[in-house]
Design goal:
This protein is mostly beta strands and 222 residues long. It contains two helices and 13 strands, in the order αβαββββββββββββ.
Length: 222
C-alpha cells in the first residue's frame, strides 16, 4: 500500500512531536550495530512488537509485523522441517542481526538490517520485520511497510536476508530528532532484538515532499 501525501505528513508531524524535547545529537552515530544469536542484545519473547503475521498487518502497539504466511509461522524452531517436509521459520535466537548505514545521498537515508542464519539448520524467512525507532527522549516511532510484495526464501546455515529502512535525511542544518536505537522483530517471530541506530538524525519537518519513513520486505541476499 503506497502512502499518500497526508500519510507522509502524519509521519513527519509525529517526528516533529518527538523533537520537542530531543537533545542535540551527533549526526554520525556508530557505523554498524550487531548482535549475535547468543550475544547480549535485548531479545524479549513477550514483546508486543511481534513480527508474526496476524492477518491484520500490524501488531498491538502499531509496529509493522512480519508478512509471512500462516503455515510458515508454525515451523519448528529446532528442526530443519516442521514434520510435513517443509522448512521451519528462522527464529530470532538463531539469527545474527546487524544494522548498517547505507545512505548515499543527502535526500534519502537508508539503514540496512541483515539477518544471518547461525542456527546450524535451514530455515525459511518471508515477509516484513517489525521495526520501532527509539528517540533520545525515550519515545518510540513505529515504521510502516512500503507495500512491496514479499518474496519467500530459505537460508542455509551462514546465509543472509536483509531489508532497508528508508528515512528522510536531515539536511536542515539543525540538530533534528536523534534516534538512539531500533527494535527489530524478524518476520513471523515474537522475540525482538534491540540495536544501536547507525545513522544520522531525522529532520523536524521536510514538507509534503519529504522522503517516506518506511521499511521494505525481507529478501534473501545473493
Amino acid at each position: 500500500m503506497k502512502h499518500t501525501r497526508k500519510a507522509v505528513a502524519a509521519v513527519i508531524s509525529l517526528v516533529a512531536a518527538l523533537s520537542l524535547t530531543a537533545c542535540n545529537g551527533d549526526d554520525n552515530a556508530s557505523p554498524e550495530a550487531t548482535t549475535k544469536p547468543t550475544a547480549s542484545a535485548d531479545k524479549d519473547g513477550d514483546n508486543a512488537n511481534a513480527g508474526a503475521d496476524t492477518g491484520t498487518g500490524s501488531s498491538t502497539n502499531g509496529a509493522s509485523g512480519g508478512g509471512g504466511d500462516k503455515d510458515s509461522a508454525a515451523g519448528s524452531g529446532n528442526n530443519s522441517d516442521d514434520g510435513d517436509g517443509e522448512v521451519g521459520i528462522c527464529r530470532t535466537d538463531e539469527l545474527e542481526v546487524n544494522a548498517t548505514d547505507n545512505t548515499t545521498d543527502k535526500t534519502e537515508g537508508v539503514v540496512t538490517v541483515v539477518f544471518t542464519n547461525g542456527g546450524g539448520r535451514d530455515c525459511s524467512i518471508k515477509g516484513y520485520a517489525g521495526v520501532d525507532l527509539t528517540a533520545s527522549t525515550g519515545d518510540t516511532l513505529s515504521v510502516n511497510r512500503s507495500g512491496e510484495q514479499a518474496v519467500p526464501g530459505v537460508l542455509k546455515d551462514g546465509e543472509s536476508a536483509a531489508f532497508n529502512i528508508t528515512f528522510p535525511y536531515n539536511n536542515s542544518g539543525g540538530s533534528g530528532v536523534r534516534i538512539t536505537s531500533l527494535v527489530v522483530t524478524p518476520p513471523n517471530e515474537t522475540k525482538h532484538v534491540t540495536l544501536d541506530w547507525p545513522a544520522g538524525t531525522l529532520p523536524v519537518s521536510d514538507g509534503e515532499s519529504a522522503v517516506k519513513l518506511e521499511i521494505s520486505p525481507v529478501g534473501k541476499v545473493g
